[in-house]
């Protein structure tokens, strides 16, 4: 049974994508940490949209989670024809003062889990000469961001990795989309352990900075897929920002952001 696998499916952008795919009558496999929440979500999707909705409760910030997911997919007999690597987490503050374990879990989730799932599910897509992979990066992937150093670097990896495998997958008729949202009204700051005052200092405060809703981001992602795009930035202001950033040296961006954020954080 052809199924779309979505990580980080229980909230934020992931949940918005799930709802829109269910409305399009796609069968879904939801991956997130909370089993009770996923069970209820799948029951609601099945009742409302008359689709097959499965779930796997897994913490992708832990080693081997991707392999356990792949084994469960095999046991369930599901054919994953689209993989949406949406799960991710951030962090904010002075790098040396942050928890090392938390930073390593961020790298495990944002990079290693994404690479692992892509590597596990891609071969069958290549053999079938059909399939889609969507990797969710971020506006932060276009530049070094002091005081969000690890997060921005992890998303830069996602961008580079995805652009490379996009070309590798073309001969196999596997479509790869790199999608980059900007600041979105989710629980990102709470999940990342970023206090409100630090979020404000880093221009990631939802009440003052320009944002999109998860539904708006999901709309743009699916529109990019419908148009066969291989790269898309969500939001008109973000698209302009990405173009401007491409013209400015990274060293200049890092220096300016560091000076601006340092003053605000210390206040």
The class by helix and strand makeup works out as: alpha/beta
Distance from N terminus to C terminus (CA atoms, Å) equals 55 Å
- Put simply, the count of helices is 10
What is the CATH class?
Alpha Beta
CATH superfamily: NAD(P)-binding Rossmann-like Domain
Helix content: 40-55%
Mean pLDDT figure: 92
Molecular shape = globular
Secondary-structure element pattern, one letter each: EHEHEHEHEHEHHHEHH
Low-confidence stretches: none
Domain count: 1
Task: Give the CATH architecture.
Answer: 3-Layer(aba) Sandwich
CATH fold annotation: Rossmann fold
Strand arrangement, largest sheet? 3-2-1-4-5-6-7
Report the C-alpha radius of gyration, rounded: 18 Å
User: What fraction strand?
Assistant: 5-15%
Main β-sheet, in a few words?
7 strands, parallel
The number of E-state strands comes to 7
Task: Describe it.
This protein has helices at residues 12-23, 35-49, 65-76, 100-128, 149-169, 188-192, 196-201, 214-226, 236-245, 250-266; strands at residues 2-7, 28-32, 53-57, 79-85, 132-136, 175-180, 231-233. The chain has 267 residues and is of the alpha/beta class. It has one domain (2-266): Rossmann fold. Strands 3-2-1-4-5-6-7 form a 7-stranded parallel β-sheet, with helices on both faces. It is globular. The mean pLDDT is 92.
Structural key phrases:
alpha/beta; Rossmann fold; seven-stranded parallel beta sheet; 14% strand
């Amino acid at each position: 049974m052809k199924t779309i696998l979505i990580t980080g499916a229980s909230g934020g952008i992931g949940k918005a994508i799930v709802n829109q795919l269910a409305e399009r009558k796609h069968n879904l496999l939801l991956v997130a940490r909370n089993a009770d929440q996923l069970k209820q979500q799948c029951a609601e999707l099945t009742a409302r949209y008359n689709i097959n909705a499965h779930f796997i409760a897994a913490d992708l910030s832990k080693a081997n989670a991707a392999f356990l997911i792949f084994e469960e997919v095999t046991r369930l007999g599901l054919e994953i024809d689209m993989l949406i690597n949406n799960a991710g987490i951030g962090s904010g503050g002075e790098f040396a003062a942050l928890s090392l374990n938390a930073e390593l879990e961020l790298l495990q989730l944002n990079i290693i889990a994404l690479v692992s799932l892509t590597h596990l599910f891609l071969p069958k897509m290549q053999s079938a000469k059909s399939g889609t992979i969507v990797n969710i990066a971020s506006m932060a992937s276009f530049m070094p961001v002091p005081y969000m150093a690890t997060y921005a670097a992890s998303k830069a990896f996602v961008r580079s990795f995805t652009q490379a495998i996009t070309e590798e997958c073309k001969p196999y008729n596997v479509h790869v989309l790199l999608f980059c949202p900007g600041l979105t009204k989710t629980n990102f700051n709470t999940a990342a352990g970023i206090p409100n005052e630090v979020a404000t200092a880093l221009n990631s405060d939802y009440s003052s900075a320009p944002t999109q809703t998860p539904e708006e981001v999901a709309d743009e992602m699916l529109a990019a897929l419908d148009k066969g795009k291989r790269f898309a930035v969500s939001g008109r202001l973000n698209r302009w920002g990405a173009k401007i950033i491409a013209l400015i040296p990274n060293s200049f961006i890092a220096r300016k952001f560091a000076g601006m954020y340092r003053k605000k954080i210390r206040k």
